[in-house]
UniProtKB/TrEMBL annotation:
Family annotation (SUPFAM superfamilies): Restriction endonuclease-like
Organism from which the protein derives: Streptomyces venezuelae
PANTHER family in the cross-refs: SLL1072 PROTEIN, SLR1083 PROTEIN
CDD domains cross-referenced by the UniProt entry: DUF820-like
Protein name: Putative restriction endonuclease domain-containing protein
Length: 176
């Protein structure tokens, strides 16, 4: 599917789903629930306490380019303040420090390859299906070379350029 066709389809999508174009394929995700929102707020607080200078954008669509053009709606984007000014709905990922994805309760693999192809240095996947966090970093050739996973409750050190330590005990409150 071409990005222009996707954008037209996405404008008319019902409010009960979120559409993305990943790897040239249309993906449909359920809308976010309350626990999902609490996880994003938890992460926002962690980021603001440790590194207030970048912003954690909870709504920022990105044009993921590379071998396959795409459109992604990450659950969060950590970036310096101001990189999306004047870019319109689907922003270029240049300057993004980290993308965040929170899966639904049934888990999911996320979009790490799309973010790696776009050159995003760190991708954080919070998997509610397995109660784990995966920290993808060091993108090369469409994937991340580093991908450690941690159980909820662990202290998780996010690598540069993010350089934040997540205290994840509270995530246990948002399972199921």
């Amino acid at each position: 599917m071409a990005p222009d066709d996707f954008e037209e389809l996405a404008r008319g999508a019902p409010e009960t789903v979120t559409l993305e174009l990943i790897g040239g394929k249309l993906e449909v995700r359920p809308v976010r629930d309350g626990n999902h929102g609490e996880i994003v707020m938890w992460l926002t607080r962690q980021c603001m306490q440790q590194r207030p200078e970048p912003g954690l954008y909870s709504v920022q669509e990105m044009a993921i380019e590379g071998r396959l053009a795409g459109r992604a709606r990450p659950d969060g984007v950590l970036a310096p303040i101001g990189p999306f000014v004047g870019q319109g709905e689907w922003a270029d990922p240049g300057g993004v420090l980290m993308t965040i994805e929170v899966t639904s309760c049934d888990g999911g693999q996320g979009h790490r390859h799309a973010y790696a192809r776009a050159g995003v240095p760190v991708h954080l996947l919070i998997d509610r299906g397995s109660d784990t966090l995966a920290v993808y970093s060091d993108p090369l050739d469409g994937d991340y070379r580093q991908a450690p996973a941690y159980a909820y409750g662990a202290e998780v050190m996010l690598p540069a350029p993010v350089a934040i330590t997540l205290h994840t005990e509270q995530l246990k409150n948002y399972t199921g």
